[in-house]
Amino acid sequence: MHPSTPAQIEDHAIQLHREFVEIVRSVTGMNEQFANPLAAAIVQEMRKQWGGNRLGRKDIYIPAPDKSERNAAIRSEFDGTNAAEVCKKHGIGRSRLYEIAGERV
């Protein structure tokens, strides 16, 4: 199932995190206190790298990260004259920059 609402996406991310905690614990024997931050880091990076895409034949869905903080930073950094710098820093194209800059919070 491909989550469609923000709540469903976050629920999916939480479930993915729980599954990774169990994988780390079962494979390494690590206790939950140490497996939890490791799993969180893995899920966070997977969301950054592949979020919103389905991977491979098993149809794995990795939720995209919430971009509201990034978008707020872009809006505060963009002054109308520094598009190239802001785009490069955040890895976005010029058209996306203008979409974000025009969004109201």
Oligomer: single chain
Number of domains: 2
Measure the end-to-end span: 30 Å
Largest beta sheet: what is the strand line-up?
A: 1-2
Question: Largest beta sheet, briefly?
Answer: 2 strands, antiparallel
Q: Look at the structure and give the mean pLDDT.
A: 88
Radius of gyration: 17 Å
Q: List low-pLDDT spans.
A: none
CA-based shape: elongated
* Number of distinct beta strands: 2
Order of helices and strands: HHEEHHH
Q: What fraction strand?
A: under 5%
Class by helix and strand content? mainly alpha
Number of helices, where a helix is a run of at least 4 consecutive DSSP H or I residues: 5
Helix content: 55-70%
Summary tags:
mainly alpha; single chain; 66% helix; elongated; two-stranded antiparallel ribbon; 105 residues
Characterize the structure shown.
The chain is mostly helical and 105 residues long. The protein has two domains: 56 residues, no CATH class; 35 residues. The chain is 66% helix and 4% strand. The protein has five helices and two strands. Helix 1 crosses helix 2.
